[in-house]
Amino acid sequence: MDTKPLKDVVYQKLRKDILTGKIPGGTHINESGISKQQDVSRTPVREALQRLTQERLITALPRAGYIIEDLSNEDIQDIFSARFDIEGLVVKRAAQYITPEELQMLRDNIDQAKAHIQSGELEKVTQLDLEFHGIIYRASRSKTLFRICKNLGELTMKYRHGLNLDRNLWDIAIENHETIYQALVSKDEAQAVKAIVAHGEQARAQLLAMMKKVRSESFLEDTL
């Protein structure tokens, strides 16, 4: 018997249907329709939709419900490519301008992330991941690049949400952070760029593999 709160059950089903493409990007949904479809009251549906909005899997439309964001492989490729192409420029600047204090912040961030992975508090690692990259953005000493990278970082986190609770993938990500950090300590611009681009390529490949797996599992479930 499923003992999960109803809002979590509704949320998980909607999220899976969005990630697998069962509910295609561009589809309009609303509280009453989901409520009837899942045979639940509007309250858990409303809470589930709020969570999905925070994750940017859906967008609220004024007085018109919600629209499903597109999760095509092409869009994922495009966003990740744009993000890490720009981060290559940012980390190169950061290697020039980063301060000892900022390097210490990166060191502390990595150590905290490792501790949270060890204790299984993986959702906290998600925030630390954003903060790690944010420190590098600030170290570039470019307000424009900071804003661009911050927006792209938050957007890719939406697509990466399915990866965030996989401990093995976080182990790999933090190893990549360690490599980036060491390059910045050495002020090795070329190695820093190489490390952050490799980090992005790995994250993109992991996400596409996860999406393929989830879609395949969903197809098998639907055919049983």
Describe this structure in words.
- With 224 residues, the protein is mainly alpha-helical.
- 75% of the residues lie in helices and 4% in strands.
- It has 9 helices and 3 strands.
- A 3-stranded antiparallel beta sheet has the order 1-3-2.
- The longest helix is centred in the last third of the chain and has 35 residues, at 189-223.
- The protein starts with 5 loop residues before the first helix and ends with a helix.
**Secondary-structure-derived class:** mainly alpha
Question: Which spans have pLDDT < 50 for at least 5 consecutive residues?
Answer: none
Major sheet summary line: 3 strands, antiparallel
> What is the percent of helical residues?
over 70%
N-to-C order of helices and strands: HEHHEEHHHHHH
What's the count of strands?
3
Strand order of the largest sheet: 1-3-2
Overall pLDDT: 87
What Rg is obtained from the alpha carbons, in whole angstroms?
A: 19 Å
Strand content: under 5%
Number of helices: 9
Instruction: State the shape.
Output: elongated
The N- and C-terminal alpha carbons lie at a distance of 20 Å
Short précis:
This protein is mainly alpha-helical and 224 residues long. It is 75% helix and 4% strand.
